[in-house]
Amino acid sequence: MRAGLRRTLDLVWPRFCLICGLNAPGHPDACAACRAQLPPAEPACRRCALLLPREVERCGHCISAAPAFDAAFAAFAYGPPIASLVQRFKFNRDLAAGRLLAALLAGQLARRGAPRPDLMIPVPLNWRRRWHRGFNQAELLCRDLSRHFDGLPWSDALLRRRATPAQSALPAGKRHGNVRGAFAIRRLPPGVRTVALVDDVMTTGATLAECARVLKRAGVARVEIWVLARA
After folding, report:
1. Are residue 117 and residue 190 in the same domain, yes or no?
2. What is the pLDDT of residue 6?
3. Are residues 145 and 32 in the same domain?
4. Are strands 158-160 and 183-185 parallel, antiparallel or unpaired?
5. What does the pLDDT read at residue 4?
6. Residue 145 and residue 108: Cα distance in Å, rounded?
7. Is 67 left (phi over 0), alpha (psi -120 to 50) or beta?
8. Main-chain phi, psi angles of 228, to 5 degrees
9. N or C end of the chain, less CB within 10 A?
10. Which DSSP helix (H) or strand (E) runs through 71?
11. pLDDT averaged over 10-residue windows placed end to end, the chain, 231 residues
12. Is residue 230 within 8 Å of residue 77, measured between CB atoms?
């Protein structure tokens, strides 16, 4: 019954792939061919999601300098067409691209058996950047992920205490210092022990590590990272 209704609706209101622009019957927002070309973020380090020739519990960097978070999950490698979708979402206010990205992330989390946390927390933006952009992309991802995971709660529990230069404009060695002390707890619901920090792209992981450090100091026992892509 539902399948027949869906086919009828596809004829009346055809759905088009947000990646290639062609008709995408039966596949909301992305056709099967484009989905098959999405760059996987595996094998990787389970601690920081760095892509590697084979999966390991901890890569060399995590062994020598373990990040404050306990595990990281990236749905895809940061390359075409994921990079284009992320940029459209963040900088062109393409909310349809954002919904597709959240659905793809949810699908990968489910496929790989990611444990359900007590709470999702989006990485916060500075108020000026949020005002200029009109939204925080990490918050929208949390909102959509909650729908995919039966109302999994999320909260803007972190705030950005000060503006910092964009991490992308800095060399890797200066990124940890750039965000040191930049985050604080806004409010943390009682009883939260496990948290998934949600963001769009993970590069060095400096911002996510600083957020995790703040959460651990507030009493959170385990922090995992959920991101769309690993650069």
Report:
1. yes
2. 47
3. no
4. antiparallel
5. 53
6. 12
7. beta
8. -70, -45
9. N
10. strand 71-77
11. 51 79 84 95 98 98 98 98 98 97 98 98 95 96 99 98 76 77 95 98 97 98 99 96
12. yes
